[in-house]
């Protein structure tokens, strides 16, 4: 699309540009809004990008972006007549497969090892909470 600088056609060209901009915004804006709504309704477990601050005593912090597990899994409890009086089915979104990555934290003291190791999610699933890989609350 050419923008002509003549006074008579300038208004037409600018309005065409505004229409194109509005159409692009509506197309892509609608997709973004739909994906946010889908995430709000999503039940399951998926790999998703996550940024955190890696810290270690004696070193400066470092922002790290990695893949982590994210989601909601089916969980329910129902009362029963026999002890413990509750039947429960509790699943959490947790790591199924990971790989470890090691980075060097900046500005560490001489006596501090700058190595920092963290997991990168490769596959995630709804499963039983294992304290070896996940923080689990076992009692209230």
From TrEMBL:
GO terms for cellular component: cytoplasm; extracellular space. It is found in: Secreted. SUPFAM superfamilies: Cystine-knot cytokines. Keywords: Disulfide bond, Glycoprotein, Hormone, Secreted, Signal. It comes from the Eukaryota. Residues 44-137 form the Glycoprotein hormone subunit beta domain. One of its GO terms (molecular function) is hormone activity. Signal peptide: none annotated. GO terms for biological process: G protein-coupled receptor signaling pathway; regulation of thyroid hormone receptor signaling pathway. Heterodimer with GPHA2; this heterodimer interacts with thyroid-stimulating hormone receptor (TSHR), and hence stimulates cAMP production. Functions as a heterodimeric glycoprotein hormone with GPHA2 able to bind and activate the thyroid-stimulating hormone receptor (TSHR), leading to increased cAMP production. Plays a central role in controlling thyroid cell metabolism. Belongs to the glycoprotein hormones subunit beta family. This is Glycoprotein hormone beta-5.
